[in-house]
Queue: 3 jobs
Job 1
Amino acid sequence: MVFFWDPLESQPHDPDVKALLRIAAVYDIPVANNKATADFMITSKYMNEVYERRVLNYNAVIQRRIKELSK
């Protein structure tokens, strides 16, 4: 995902931006927020190869944390 935004300006849709970035993090989606990162991402060898992404089971993580906190 290539998503350019101005970090120095207040954004009226800031909660939507945060939600979008959170979803990208949860589903292990690469994100470029600037031209340099986008260039690296687009020219990466993984753009032309199969890439196995790692998606965490957040339900299991939450359950494990609850179990640890209840000790």
Job 2
Amino acid sequence: MVPKTYNQWRECIVNDCGIVLSKEFAQGRVSVLSKMTHPETQRFLKIYGPEHLKNTLSWFSHVANS
């Protein structure tokens, strides 16, 4: 399932993937996923599409700035 809300996404990242959602980790993800030409961003877009990228960047930014 592709998360549609912040809470679903957080549950997926933290519980399903076992990732510690720290500010530093979130800042790193924002840095990479904000670069549209980065290979990882291109792969993300191909798999999940632009709407999910926009949501994911928003959610990582929320963590990075909290």
Job 3
Amino acid sequence: MYYVNRKQIEVILEQIPDLNEGLRHAASSWDGSTMLGLVQERCLHLAVEVVTDVGSCLIDGFIMRDAGSYEDIISIIHEEKVLGDSGIYGDLTSLVALRKPLVQDYFVWERQALHPLTLVLPDILEQFASEVRRYLDQELGSEVTG
């Protein structure tokens, strides 16, 4: 029997609409300003955290192999078919690769440039949430417990 905290996963996934609003605002209003650069930076960072936190919950709850890195979290959930045939594996891998630059090397992050993921990430995050929910329903049924 698996113990998957679906409520926790759902609380995390519910952050996606706010992140998408920030990403879309940054992209549509982009002027290279520090303020929009910081909005973009924080949204990208939180998107990394959402994806890796949900991935970790799935890995722990379904007793999948241990992840050795943030990138490995994405590989594991891809191998375990959490992402289905959505085609977002590569984009999520690129997103997670931003964690170190955003968190540790923030002082050299190029805030005046619109990052390419900012334009496409809202759709990717929506697909991610949909695939996670599909996987949970497939594996556990549709009742949210935990």
